[in-house]
Amino acid sequence: SVVIQECYVQNTAREYAKLYAAEAEPLEGFGEVPEIIPIFLIHRPANNIPYATVEEELVGEFVKYSVKDGKEVNFLRRDSEAGQKCCTFQHWVYEKTNGNLLVTDLQGVGMKLTDVGIATLAKGYKGFKGNCSFSFIEQFRALHQCNGYCEMLGLKSLRTTHQKQRKATSTKSKNLPNASTVKKMVPKKAREPRDFIPSEN
């Protein structure tokens, strides 16, 4: 059921958030770390809808810090401390899981987040399959801009690996004799970055 999946995803993301907090909190100057609130599943046998979720009510301005697919740039995530720390959290999870998993849809009030999503590569990650398309992972890799919190955690810039990869591909295609060979290169090019990042670690 969707409700069970939602609980599973949010509580998995919550476990990553706890690990992120354990690493980030001791760093001098990092400050408060975003937290994903727990979501509980309750069974109501007498009800038409037998499963429901219960979570803490967040009071205050509800903000979407990261959009599911990363295409839309949300200024609140670029300018606010919580937003930047959410982006760093995404980058941290991405690096920790060798590019196999990304927590998306980070939203909530201040540093308390809920209704998050997780994207995994098609095969999943360690037996876990996300509820978002793996294309979000590719978009994140292409669009993420590191901030000061990424630097504090010593995360590697995704930009450099991405550009190196693109440069290598473009020089290759210059020496190709005709258009038909270039066409054949396209699917390989789309696949390369995905195979490239995980094997690096």
Automatic annotation (TrEMBL):
Task: Name the SMART domains for this protein.
Answer: Alpha_kinase
Q: Identify the InterPro entries for this entry.
A: a-kinase_dom (IPR004166), Kinase-like_dom_sf (IPR011009)
- Which keywords fit this entry according to its UniProt record? Disulfide bond, Immunoglobulin domain, Kinase, Serine/threonine-protein kinase, Transferase
Keyword Kinase attached? yes
Q: Name one GO molecular function term.
A: ATP binding
Q: Where is this region: Disordered?
A: 161-201
Q: Where in the numbering of this chain does the Alpha-type protein kinase domain appear?
A: 1-158
| Basic and acidic residues bias (residue ranges) | 189-201
In terms of Gene3D superfamilies, this protein maps to: MHCK/EF2 kinase
Q: Where is the composition biased (Polar residues)?
A: 170-181
Put simply, this protein is called ALPK2 kinase
